[in-house]
Amino acid sequence: MSTVPSADPAFDAFNIFEETYKTVSSHDIKAAVLIPKRLQSGRHPVIINIHGGFFATGHSLFAPWFHPWLIKMALEQGAILISADYRLLPTPNGIADQLEDLEDFWQWTKAELPSILQDGVPDQALDFEHLLLVGGSAGGYCVSQVALSHPDEISALAMAYPCVDLKDSILSEGPPPGKPTVLRFPLEDIPSKEEGLKWIKEKRGTVASKGELEITPYCVSLSQNGLFFSEVLEHNGVRLTTNELPLERLEAGARLPKNVWIFHGDNDSVVYLHQSEKFVDLARTKLPEINLRFDVAEGKDHAFDMDASVWGSYPASKDAIAFLTKAWLE
């Protein structure tokens, strides 16, 4: 196992390893394994995290988008945390490339990672009987897709302000009249449509699985101008079908894990609350047997939980984490 230094003080309580789970065009795509430094020997519950970032940026150890409550939970419960990279859009085949990576990551985690861990850290083991899957924003889409493909392998699913409706008009038409700009960007700071399309052309032919904040304005531009769906999510003749659309998969009979927690701010400026509401209504109709908790945070914008002080003052946070912990570990 390849040890990497703590990329941010947020991860100082962990020993961190990175492993390649697949290679595309000579580019290694990796997963990070975070093991609490004070973890005792034995088998430990597992948390799998899939990062967000407009489908186009971020990475497995990008601290600004790594939920602080998730780090705290891993340390308190003695869990091994696995965080995935994947190809960042735009890619030749759009979202289809990303979904291929996520399935490859899932299979690698279950089939190969246990032996890799045994060789590198022989006193630690993964308890997949207690597996929590977590993702926010674009990562919420990612984990919804993984969960719909592997419902019986997941103890609990947590989705934060998830982008579960890729056909939502904000991605194909831009914000409707009266709505704020995407991510509340000042209009003067949003690149032009032409600049956004130029960025896509430059990036399309390069495989990348780690990104930073500098590309966010281009994603905002493409969404603000109604081009994100056609130019980023779909491409190269690949048209989204039921397999790429969580709402349609639910409607068609796909199942979810038995325990699901979703939370979303009602003032979200990029993934509108109605996306989660559609998903929750459909899940409750189609899967009444699941244990589903849905929290709507009044007045909160996108990614509000990334600020630990804001999250700590949110009235539902304590009960929600208790719900998730019980669902995951019992």
TrEMBL record:
Keywords annotated in UniProt: Hydrolase
Segments forming domain Alpha/beta hydrolase fold-3: 47-168
GO MF annotations in UniProt: hydrolase activity
Database matches in Pfam families: Abhydrolase_3
Highest taxon above the source species: Eukaryota
Classification via SUPFAM superfamilies: alpha/beta-Hydrolases
InterPro entries xrefs: AB_hydrolase_3, AB_hydrolase_fold, GDXG_lipolytic_enzyme
PANTHER family for the chain: AB HYDROLASE SUPERFAMILY PROTEIN C4A8.06C (PTHR48081), ALPHA_BETA HYDROLASE FOLD-3 DOMAIN-CONTAINING PROTEIN (PTHR48081:SF3)
Name of the protein described by the UniProt record: Alpha/beta hydrolase fold-3 domain-containing protein
Native source organism of the sequence: Zasmidium cellare ATCC 36951
